[in-house]
Design a protein that fits this description.
heterodimer; A: 290 residues; alpha+beta; Helicase, Ruva Protein, domain 3; 2 domains; four-stranded antiparallel beta sheet; B: 274 residues; Jelly Rolls; 15-stranded mixed beta sheet
């Protein structure tokens, strides 16, 4: 088997192993980064909703206390504010979603659907789970969700959610007496659920991975080509030429010219050694003839 | 007690009309009439804030501040229109009387409306006592309203208490009354502004007050006695005398002068002596 073939076999084997390993590691890294980016987006949306709730509770609601005696203003409810703000976000980013999914809500739009109810029940099931992260298929593509429990920690919440008689009359006038009552202190009544699209970051990661692998392959191929050319020019061609000269000498043709190597590397040393050996052989032959 | 004018109000003081100017002081006997789009606010030294809304006709019957002998009880009257007041724990008790009901309180926030057909009020916070008719509420008044309750009464009918304000009341209420009354008195704490005179009052200007319930028209009458010499004013007084009969002795004093005994005629028998 020719040297260059052996070399290329080893080179290709190493190339494939290296490419495979690099591909696996880079894919894992890119996918992890994409997922982390998605998770960060989701957490950003979640923190935005929490900030909106706090702002409404601390700054807006006190200003509306008097007006609330005349008409119920949902704008004073932290959950409503957070939902409205993020609904506005959806006008430009429809793949994003936020919901305060509740098992027994005052506002029917917050009623938990099946998968949301499962999340709420997981939180209610005990333990101190503070977050559930998962992903699911949606009509707009794969979506990652973060869910956090809505726990009644402030007795003030029960002003509107304990009994119909205790609730503000204007609230009951607006939403009726059947929904959103009977909540207890420290009860998990729902979950804040943020859904963010996975498609774009995943596609971006896949594109990056593909670009990286193609680039790596091209680089490997260029390296392979360069090494092949170098091997041929610097090793195989001089060795082949030297081999032909050695054949001539072995057949008794001592008139072959010396092998001249322009380099002082191992081929150059080999050439010098061959030339010395040829001279020694010629002298030995002459001494035998005498 | 400082007047804070927001537009569309007139002050009737003495026998003259004045344009309301922000920072002017309220006096006992002052009458304030608010235009259809005006709002007039008042802030008292004890913390009471009182606002007169569109169409309000207000009379400051007696302004009795707190004194060394204890908290005085002021008497205020709302004869028509909208009003809102906010009395806190530091406010002196006062009575606010309308043609349909009277209320008394020391610590409450109330919105009230008076029309010819009905009077209504919503107690946002606190507690008020209510007397029916044009009557001053007292501690013994049987009707007591607390925060969240709504009271309405038509003349000649019993008042009704409901757990929430009527939708029509809320719909007609001036929008600023849905919020807390603002406070601006600090701007005028150290300066007093005089209202701008805007001419003498004629009978037409004060007709409604001269025909008001006796409790109001009597002190108003005292202010305008000198006006009885004005021919136009006098003619109007005479034409409407049946609405304010107390003017009769002033317009026709001769009817009320004590009659001198008539001397006996010649030839008449002498009265028997004992």
């Amino acid at each position: 088997m020719k040297l260059i073939l052996k070399f290329n076999i080893v080179f290709i084997a190493i190339f494939l192993i290296g490419l495979g390993a690099a591909g696996y590691v880079s894919n894992e890294l890119l996918q992890a980064n994409a997922r982390e980016e998605i998770l960060q987006n989701a957490r950003l949306v979640m923190e935005t909703s929490l900030s909106t709730r706090a702002y409404t509770s601390k700054q807006v609601r006190p200003l509306l206390e008097t007006q609330m005696k005349y008409q119920f203003l949902p704008q004073s409810v932290p959950a409503y504010s957070a939902t409205e703000v993020l609904t506005g976000l959806r006008a430009k980013f429809p793949e994003y979603a936020y919901k305060e999914a509740t098992l027994n809500p005052t506002n029917p739009r917050n009623r938990a659907v099946e998968w949301e109810a499962d999340l709420v029940n997981q939180f209610r099931g005990g333990g101190d789970r503070t977050e559930i992260v998962g992903d699911r298929e949606t009509p707009t593509g794969r979506s990652l969700y973060i869910a956090r429990p809505i726990k009644i920690g402030d007795p003030a919440c029960l002003t509107c959610h304990s009994t119909v008689d205790a609730a503000p009359k204007t609230l009951v006038d607006r939403y009726g007496p059947a929904n959103g009552f009977g909540w207890q202190l420290n009860e998990v009544v729902g979950a804040q659920v943020v859904s963010v699209p996975m498609e774009v970051p995943i596609q971006r990661a896949t594109r990056a991975y593909r670009t990286f692998m193609i680039s790596l392959t091209i680089v490997f191929l260029l390296i392979g080509l360069a090494l092949n050319l170098m091997l041929y020019a610097m090793v195989i061609r001089p060795v082949t030429k030297l081999s032909k000269l050695a054949d001539q000498v072995s057949l008794g043709n001592m008139e072959v010219p010396d092998f001249h190597a322009s380099t002082r590397d191992e081929i150059g040393v080999l050439a010098d050694s061959f030339n010395r050996m040829k001279k020694s052989l010629v002298q030995a032959m002459k001494m035998l003839e005498e | 007690m400082t007047l804070l004018e927001s537009g569309g109000g007139a002050l009737l003081r003495g026998t003259a009309r004045y344009a309301l100017v922000e920072g002017a002081r309220l006096q006992t006997g002052d009458i304030i009439e608010v235009g259809d789009k005006g709002v007039v606010g008042m802030e008292f030294a004890d913390g009471l804030k009182l606002s007169l809304g569109p169409g309000a006709r207000f009379y400051a019957g007696a302004l009795v501040p707190r004194g060394p002998k204890g908290p005085g009880v002021s008497d205020l009257y709302l004869m028509a229109g909208w009003s809102k007041f906010a009395a806190g724990k530091s406010s002196a008790p006062f009575r606010y009387t309308t043609p349909v009901f009277g209320l008394g309180t020391a610590d409450a926030t109330v919105v009230l409306q008076v029309t010819t057909a009905e009077g209504a009020m919503f107690v946002e916070t606190g507690e008020v006592r209510v007397a029916e008719g044009f009557a001053k509420a007292t501690r013994d008044s049987p009707t007591r309203l607390s925060g969240g309750q709504f009271y309405s009464r038509k003349p000649d009918q019993r008042g009704a208490v409901q757990p929430r304000p009527a939708a029509a009341f809320v719909a007609a209420m001036p929008k600023p009354y849905m919020d807390n009354l603002p406070t601006r008195v600090a701007r005028f704490k150290d300066r007093e502004v005089q209202p701008r005179p805007a001419g003498e009052l004629g009978y037409d200007d004060v007709e409604a007050w001269l025909k008001a319930p006796r409790e109001i028209r009597r002190p108003v009458m005292q202010r305008f006695i000198a006006k009885a010499d004005d021919p136009a004013f006098r003619r109007a007084l005479v034409a409407n005398l049946r609405f304010h009969p107390e003017w009769d002795p002033i317009l026709f004093p001769e009817k009320y002068e004590p009659k001198e005994p008539t001397p006996p005629q010649a030839g008449a028998p002498k009265p028997a002596t004992q």
